[in-house]
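W.,

You were right to be curious about this one. When I first looked at the sequence I had no strong expectations either way, so I just let the prediction run and decided to look at it fresh. Below is the sequence, 752 residues in total, followed by the output.
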Amino acid sequence: MKLLYTDIRTFLTEILTREAEELVATGKRVFYIAPNSLSFEKERAVLECLSQQASFAITVTRFAQMARYLVLNDLPAKTSLDDIGLGMVFYKCLAELDPKDLRVYGAIKQDPQFIQQLMELYHEIATAQMNFLDFESLTDEDKRADLLLIFEKVTAYLNQGQLAQGSQLSHLIEAIEDDKVSSDFTQIALVIDGFTRFSAEEERIVDLLHGKGVEIVIGAYASKKAYASPFREGNLYQASVEFLHHLASKYQTPAQDYSQTHEKMDSFDKASRLLESSYDFSELTLDVDEKDRENLQIWSCLTQKEELELVARSIRQKLHENSELSYKHFRILLGDVASYQLSLKTIFDQYQIPFYLGRSESMAHHPLTQFIESILALKRYRFRQEDLINLLRTGLYTDLSQADIDAFEQYIRYLGINGLPAFQQTFTKSHHGKFNLEQLNALRLRILTPLETLFASRKQKAENLLQKWNYFLKEGAVTKQLQDLTATMEALERERQAEVWKAFCHVLEQFATVFAGSQVSLEDFLALLHSGMSLSQYRTIPATVDTVLVQSYDLIAPLTADFVYAIGLTQDHLPKIAQNTSLLTDEERQSLNQATEEGSQLLIASSENLKKNRYTMLSLINSARKELILSAPSLFNESESKESAYLQELVHFGFSRKEKRMNHKGLSKEDMGSYHSLLSSLVAYHQQDEMSETEQDLTFIKVLARVMGKKLDQQGLENPALPTSPSSKPLAKDTLQALILLNRSFTCLPLV
């Protein structure tokens, strides 16, 4: 075991890559382990740091993936379930329980949110190296009885069906403890980068591999002062220093200092030292000069949209000024991803900046999920009119045109047709010939026939039900509609839809696995399918490496990109306060931790909040190599907001706050970012209440209009909005004929 730390302005990955190469030189196969959120970026960083730019002996991966490499040939012959399948198991087991059997959770036993909480608790127990029998130490008797009953039933069902549910790490731990791993541990080494704490499961695997003789190198960021300090509470480096001290004490190995001496203290190092001294109550005086204020800027904007526009303009300007820069040199960090997601796409498309938001997207609002939800509602509520209209509006059911759907909707709304018997009767009321009954009845049969066939299904084996569902998808032209829908889409959007279809098929596969040989009703099947789709997520990978990466700020690592823009850093989002929304309170978690043996540990979020947030802020300040911009809007989600206290501290140290505003009343060279953004700026310029009358602006507009006019003429097009000289052309024949008839009707009026 080798532990090391370095100062935060020295690239830790480069140091650890050298360690990995030395291990390879001794004949080892090295697993370079990074956290889940950083593994993709870490792979690229390690490749850049390798002396040969590549190595077959070094695998950059995650703990879970490493476990798969080691036990791939030794996995038990069990059918694997993921979270979707596990959710179905919980649903099935809870459905078999009488509500009276559950003292606390009887009324919500099949609520999707409750099942989601049970799944999260199931995973937490496994990660904490506990089992459900540890619930015996809970003091709340009713809750204890309910949880024990639920988890005992689920565990029994998994064991009975030979269903494997658990992380790859848990399988590896079990295999090592039972000596069932065929890999030669003496030829393996681990290099671990980017961690400030291990889960109980991760710590257990490190401990087992160390005991098997695997060489392990673990690195982290820390300052000499913080590591040597006897009092660590409140220190910026508290998380990483406590992590290193815990490992040093456990394995009797002191951490080695790999800090480097830098010729000149840069702006970010100054900010880090000033913040550290502020939190450890030591005195430090450093001068913050204009160069520092240029490298680390604090923006104060009015709205989120304005923030994004200013960031887009800044990126465009930098690319224009320096031809050697590309999009991959920029990184955007968001205080709240959900609040910025829609505006981000709109504005960056406008400025023609390619970006990749590395975030899984929920399928809860996808048309395919709404399609299943509508069918479930039709079955459950016996053909309500609104549910049938919602089904047709998804655009996935039947190959009817939009005009046909509108005509059908108009008719059933006009007559108030509701319920299956009413839809089964032939439409006979035409309202004085206003409605085409022949067409409407043909539409009625086309819509109703596949649904009637499906709803006639009684409780039966899962395999037969899936066959009927497959037949319904074909008869309802669902697959054809999906193909037609994606045919006109761009490549990226087609890839998204392909991922959605894969997820849909996967939900069906998990259903077939969990309910193999079981009797299932159609309503339960549809409910499970809808629940699985709602919980499913999908993500795409960037089409090219040269894109601006966008992510949540709390996933950032030091020295990530040359230029970093962190926006949305309001008091509500920096720092982020993790809330406990699980079925166990913090007090119950603490009592479980005390009652279980050493090495079993449930995470208590509230106790980790402060040290995690301080280390995150430190990583954020050091995320850029050249320039960092921290921004907070005055209005966040249309509500007044204040900037983070961390930004106020930086202002107190001497870094300046800049009021940034979009100026639509004037035009400058900064507006020449891209073709689309330039047109947008011109529109905004002309929409001002007070038009600018300066000679410079008027000349610019006149020249632009002349150039655009010539360009349109070359293409055989014209734009009547352009200020050009008026021109005449003969009226069309049908227009002249209409005018003549109109004139005759007026001239023939009788005189009174």
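Here's what jumped out at me. Residues 235 and 697 are 54 Å apart (CA to CA). And, maybe more interesting for your project: The longest strand covers residues 624-633.

Coffee later to discuss?

I.
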